[in-house]
Amino acid sequence: MMFEGFGAALPETTISRHLVDVLYTVKYTCIEPSTCNSDTSKQKRKEFAEIASAGDVVVYFDETNYNQNTKRTRVRAKNGKREVEKLPPSKGAKLQIQCALSSSFGVLYKMMKESDVYKEEYANIKVIVVFGNAPAHSRIETLVPDCDDLGILRLGLYSPMCIPIDNCFSSMKAIIKQYLALIRDEMNGPLLISKGQPISKTETRMRPLERAAHVSMVEITQRMLHRMELHVSQFVNAAVRMEGMVYGA
What we know:
With about 250 residues, this protein is of the alpha/beta class. It is built from eleven helices and seven strands. It has a five-stranded mixed beta sheet. Strands 6-7 form a two-stranded antiparallel sheet. Strand 2 (about 95-100) and strand 3 form a beta hairpin. Helix 4 packs across helix 11 (about 220-240) and helix 8 crosses helix 10 (about 200-215). The radius of gyration is 21 Å and the shape is globular. The protein starts with a helix and ends in a 9-residue tail after the last helix. Residues about 85-90 and about 110-115 have low confidence and may be disordered.
């Protein structure tokens, strides 16, 4: 990757030396090129890209979960089979962050308080809310009433590269990990008493997670979303042309 991007070849020892004591995330991608680039997936991506690029205000909605527990593992599978390790549910309490982003507003739930801005600038513009394919979003179409100025757009399968909110969440989680690393002692030896009153272990776990969320959420800015939209624009344009997608690009 370094050679392709910069024309430089680095030995593994040099890379390892720079990664020592550095917090980083490695994602394992499940590659399904036959399904991702099937005619059905390409057609759905094309429909998604055409609607998203029609000039309406686009709002991206998604949620993410995290807790204090991490598990680093690698698995192997037989030739032709997917690498899947069956694990029990995550231990400990989880914190869920739900977020709605728009390049016109930034973080939506903060900007919508300025109702005068919305009335003056976007009163006659249709708003398209983009959802993923998570099970939590499966009933959105039935729960949201039909409106002339509101549209629901579902992302096609195997197409996360076409929406910028996932990249924003990745940046936010990196900041969360940095913050949790700074308060490692508090997490390893939590106090079970607050203001003279006993508190549960669940609450002691949730408090640093909530603080980490407040610290990291402010990093998701309108400028960041613009950068992420610029990054995914190459995939959106390719989707309009019904081209195949490549994971990890």
